[in-house]
Specification:
mainly alpha, 2 helices, extended
Length: 55
């Protein structure tokens, strides 16, 4: 995906699907992000799952 973006960044569309709301920026929101990701996979018909990145 990175190579495709580097070759044609204008071919990608970026938008906020659902905001993640939280009170404290410093807290770990990994579980909330995972749940939000799963919800988006179920709700958006043409979305394709991402492969997990390196941490």
């Amino acid at each position: 995906m990175q190579m495709a973006y580097n070759q044609a960044p204008d071919a990608f569309e970026w938008s906020v699907l659902k905001p993640l709301e939280y009170a404290e920026r410093e807290d770990d929101h990994s579980d909330d992000l995972e749940l939000l990701y799963m919800i988006c996979l179920e709700e958006i018909l043409d979305v394709k799952p991402m492969k997990p990145g390196k941490r």
